[in-house]
Specification:
The chain has 108 residues and is mainly alpha-helical. It has five helices and three strands. A hairpin with a 2-residue loop joins strand 2 and strand 3. Helix 2 packs across helix 4.
Length: 108
């Protein structure tokens, strides 16, 4: 299996996860840590707790948990338990992968 096939499979899973409105809103909220045209590193990336992510989404906490698990499973977000909190963030490599996809010259 070639690297491009692996990348295509990963992108397919990412886009499938983002096809849900709530997951897209969560992802957009997490991706707002960096200004356009800048690159985040893990130290700069704003991490949100699960509770903070759910604010204003008007969905049950169990539904929010499901959406976060899907975003994590697809490789779009990272999650880490810190005591009683679970924090979520987008790894810079993920944003780079998506940016490279949209900026690539497609020659067919």
């Amino acid at each position: 299996m070639s690297n491009s096939k692996i990348d295509d499979d990963r992108l397919t899973e990412m886009f499938k996860a983002l096809g849900n409105t709530h997951r897209l809103m969560i992802f957009k909220r997490l991706s707002s840590c960096c200004q356009p045209g800048t690159q985040c590193d893990l130290e700069q990336a704003m991490a949100y707790s699960v509770g903070e992510l759910g604010e204003g989404l008007d969905i049950a906490s169990s539904t929010l948990s499901h959406h976060l698990k899907e975003l994590h499973r697809s490789g779009l977000i990272e999650m880490e338990r810190q005591g009683k909190r679970v924090v979520c963030w987008i790894a810079p490599e993920t944003l780079n992968s998506l940016g490279n996809f949209f900026n690539a010259d497609i020659k067919r």
